[in-house]
Design brief:
heterodimer; A: 493 residues; alpha+beta; 3 domains; 5-stranded antiparallel β-sheet; 18 helices; 12 strands; 48% helix; 13% strand; disordered N terminus; B: 375 residues; alpha/beta; GMP Synthetase, Chain A, domain 3; 2 domains; 9-stranded mixed β-sheet; 4-stranded mixed β-sheet; 12 helices; 34% helix; 30% strand
């Protein structure tokens, strides 16, 4: 430490200017108080002028000359965050983060003080995930306010928010959020190792980070939950998962995730148990239907008309009679049309988007049937599939389901039901092999944990939930120790 | 690399097993096929195909062709349409009565071997298969095949028929000591075809028929959860008088009573080589008396039970006589005899000889469980 003081490590204005490519934003306020020359260097548009004026410039000018030296100022300047003993690189990156650089010309020493004025969105309602009940607050792009939201809602001294920096060129702060006496050490270790191995130039969003941290990069299925809802984040952390924030992204990453956790929503906890269980089943059913229904239609139309119940046969036959394409082509055409509609709707401003939905849904759907290009039974099936994919509470899972549909449809068109079974086999093999932070993806079905089924497949009344789900391997699996002590047979729950 | 090879091998295996493409609108989907015997071993086959084109008014097409085997008929039918004729949705096979008189097992054998044809397909006997299929009265269904399927399916589901499908027929046919039956469908002008009795078979040849209501006596002993149907009996007034059952006020010569069976139990009891008892107990509730008779008195209730039992036994006795005359055994008395160890050596031929001479004593008991129940 001391030798660095002696070294002439602190760059002067000229040097900084050259490093920053003569940036027009770089400002240098040259103060001369008595005999002491001080340069205050900062980036004009990154700092908050009030702080700089009030607590730096005014403070320095009001000091009497005998106090005006590095050591005193370092100890007494009325700003909460200061940095000393810096490398040249850090000086520059701090300047770019809105710090002001106070350089003593005579002493050739400097301190750096925080005057940052980051652009922040105010905290608003969540947009991608919406709840009918429950808190509406959502994360913002600012890491500090995200951590603040978590702290405010989860007042536990064991809540850890470890900071890491990633990115070679653009350094970003990352926080790993977990509860120390719940989260599993191995999982935490795995996550930290992944961060160490992560060599990247720039991470632009948490969705990119999640993709970089995944166990299997080639999988269709997301292996981390991405959420912008603090309540979901907190719920997951309390169940022994680990959360990650990255600066500049309004979306938190939660891991380890399993397949079924993508189909649970925090609303399931807020609503009554009967409705929640029902809705969970509907979501799972919709997902399965979304992947397989169009494929089954294609297979039945192309190879297995014997399977169609005789009452339905006539209706389907009539609707197919004028269609000039084979069922596979017909289905792919309509599925692509729906995807196109969705994509066009997503890219348009919301008001035009609504019109788009009406135009697409009614006009095009009606017109294709009347023109005889598709059968109206297929329109119903494709619409159901689209709805099913959107019913997943996590958007990523919906997209995975949408993509997974296409290979199955093609398999059905080529090999009929055999193809669908073949597709299911491959899908199951893949899902069984998949892990998220080294935890099995298909848990609690495989490996089977009967006690955990109540957390993922159904939702029981709250007094049943006295433990945390075991799939996350929490250190402390009992949630309500006192209640549990009164119950003689612990294994009952 | 290993993975890719596995996928490749799997896909090759899959494609090898794959059935040929059968796109729905390219298929001539037959729902019913009927066979008529012309002369000299020539048969006429008639099928009804679903017709999906909405512009056409008719929802089905019927085609007929002549040939000597069912497969030849099919080949000739194929020549008459641009669609591929498939049997995947075939639900019913109709046989002309004259054809059933010469035996239908050779036809059924080829059906049974065809994997496309379900073994739960319905079989029925009709007077003229071609005319039945060409009948244009088929209620709200799109064509005759669907209608007859629904007609038979309703009766089958309610266990009103003894045998009706291919599997039943073939197993009963090949079993020693029991003869199959099949529903008979009557076709007349201006109305939809309807079930008109049950055909009795000796081996695979039709020998006679009984009415659907009378099949209850067969079902009592062959099926323990069949729908017997309501039983209506006529009782002479003097019988009531003789037994001292309370007389209803408006005097009448004949009293009619309708009973609703609640549950029943039938048992074939082999007394010895010559004597067989057919024991059955039926619990009934009374539905209707014409004219009104009160059965409040327990004594008269018991007497009534006896009287009804006698009436049923009497009727059953006549039916059994007829069955013996026709030498057909739909109840499976021969099977029961053969199940006893000392008679297990008997062959089909032996049983046919024994059967007409057998003394069969019907012994049906009736218990009136409820009178005047309100639904």
């Amino acid at each position: 430490m001391t030798d660095r003081h002696n070294n002439d490590n602190f760059p002067g204005y000229e040097k900084i200017k050259s490093i920053l490519n003569e940036s027009p934003d770089l400002m240098c306020r040259k103060l001369e108080v008595g005999q002491v020359g001080i340069h205050i260097i900062f980036m004009k548009n990154l700092i908050k002028p009030e702080i700089l004026n009030e607590f730096v410039i005014k403070y320095i000018e009001e000091l009497s000359v005998e106090y005006l030296h590095y050591t005193y100022l370092m100890k007494n300047i009325p700003i909460e965050e200061i940095k000393v003993n810096l490398e040249e690189q850090e000086v520059i990156s701090s300047l770019l983060n809105g710090f002001a650089y106070i350089y003593f010309l005579d002493e050739k020493k400097a301190i750096i003080v925080n005057c940052a004025n980051p652009i922040e969105r105010s905290i608003e309602k969540a947009e991608t995930e919406s709840l009918v009940y429950g808190p509406k607050i959502s994360f913002t792009e600012s890491l500090t306010s995200n951590v603040k939201i978590i702290r405010q809602n989860l007042n536990d001294y064991n809540l850890c928010t470890d900071e890491i920096k990633i990115g070679e060129r653009v350094q970003k702060k990352v926080r790993i959020v977990y509860i120390k006496d719940i989260a599993n050490d191995d999982t935490l270790q795995t996550l930290k190792e992944r961060f160490e191995q992560l060599k990247t130039d720039n991470i632009s969003d948490s969705s990119v980070l999640a993709q970089c941290l995944e166990d299997n990069h080639y999988s269709l299925f997301p292996q981390f939950i991405l959420t912008e809802l603090p309540d979901r984040f907190i719920y997951s952390i309390l169940n022994g998962r680990i959360g990650v924030f990255i600066d500049g992204s309004p979306v938190g990453i939660i891991g380890p995730a399993n397949f079924f956790s993508f189909f649970e929503s925090t609303e399931d906890i807020y609503l009554r148990w009967s409705l929640s269980t029902f809705i969970r089943f509907i979501r799972l059913f919709a997902m399965v239907g979304s992947i397989f229904l169009t494929a089954i239609y294609v297979a039945a139309m192309t190879y297995h008309f014997e399977l169609i119940p005789s009452k339905l046969l006539f209706i389907i036959g009539q609707s197919r009679s004028q269609v000039p394409f084979p069922p596979l082509l017909e289905a792919l055409l309509l599925e692509l049309l729906i995807e196109l509609l969705r994509e066009a709707g997503a890219r348009l401003p919301s008001k035009v988007g609504q019109t788009m939905g009406i135009v697409g849904g009614i006009v095009i759907g009606q017109a294709t049937v009347e023109a005889g290009l598709t059968s109206n039974i297929l329109i119903i099936i494709v619409a159901f599939s689209a709805l099913g994919a959107f019913s997943a509470p996590i958007y990523e899972m919906g997209t995975a389901v949408r993509i997974a549909r296409f290979p199955i449809i093609i398999l059905a068109g080529v090999w009929g039901l055999n193809g669908i079974i073949f597709g299911i086999c491959i899908l199951m093999v893949h899902l069984l092999k998949l892990t998220s932070l080294n935890k099995p993806y298909l848990a609690p079905l495989y490996p089977l944990r009967m006690k955990d089924l109540q957390y993922f497949l159904i939702r029981l009344p709250h007094h049943f939930y006295m433990r945390r789900p075991l799939v996350n391997r929490p250190k402390d699996s009992i949630r309500l120790k006192e209640r549990l002590r009164n119950i003689t047979d612990l294994d009952e729950f | 690399m290993k993975k890719k090879i596995v996928i490749l091998v799997c896909s090759l295996l899959c494609t090898a097993c794959m059935a040929p493409e059968k796109i729905i609108e390219m298929q001539g989907i037959s729902t019913i096929i009927g066979f008529d015997l012309l002369d000299d071993n020539t048969y006429k086959g008639t099928i009804s195909l679903l017709q999906f084109d909405r512009k056409e008014e008719k929802t089905s097409v019927t085609l007929s062709a002549e040939g000597t085997t069912s497969k030849q008929i099919r080949q000739k039918l194929e020549e008459q349409t641009s669609h591929d004729i498939t049997s995947g949705q075939l639900r019913t096979i109709l046989f002309n009565k004259n054809m059933a008189e010469t035996g239908i097992s050779s036809f059924l054998d080829t059906m049974q071997r065809d994997s496309i044809i379900s073994s739960l397909i319905f079989l029925a006997i009709t007077d003229n298969a071609e005319e039945t299929i060409n009948n244009t009265n088929y209620e709200e269904y799109p064509e005759m095949g669907s209608y007859i399927y629904q007609l038979l399916d309703k009766h089958e589901k309610k266990e009103m028929l003894v045998n009706s499908n291919l599997h039943d027929f073939i197993t009963t046919l090949n079993e020693i000591g029991i003869d199959p039956t099949l529903p008979m469908i009557k076709n007349s002008n201006g109305v939809a075809p309807f079930i008109d009795g049950v055909a009795l078979f000796k081996e695979d040849k039709i020998v006679g028929s009984i009415s659907l209501i009378n099949t209850l006596y067969i079902k009592l002993f062959t099926n323990n959860k069949a729908f017997l149907g309501d039983i209506t009996l006529e009782i002479a007034a003097e019988e009531l008088e003789k037994r001292g059952i309370a007389q209803p006020l408006p005097k009448s010569d004949i009293y009619k009573i309708t009973l609703h069976p609640i549950k029943y139990k039938g048992n074939i009891e082999i007394k010895n080589e010559e004597l067989v008892h057919l024991n059955a107990t039926i619990s009934v509730s009374t539905l209707e008396f014409q004219p009104y008779t009160s059965l409040k008195n327990k004594d008269s209730l018991n007497k009534m039970e006896l009287l009804i039992g006698e009436a049923l036994n009497n009727k059953f006795g006549h039916i059994l006589e007829e069955l013996k005359n026709l030498n057909t055994d739909p109840i499976g008395i021969g099977r029961k005899i053969r199940s006893i160890r000392k008679y297990s050596h008997l062959t089909d031929g032996d049983l046919r000889q024994i059967y007409p001479a057998l003394k069969i004593k019907p012994n049906i008991k009736v218990e009136i469980k409820r009178t005047g129940s309100v639904d």
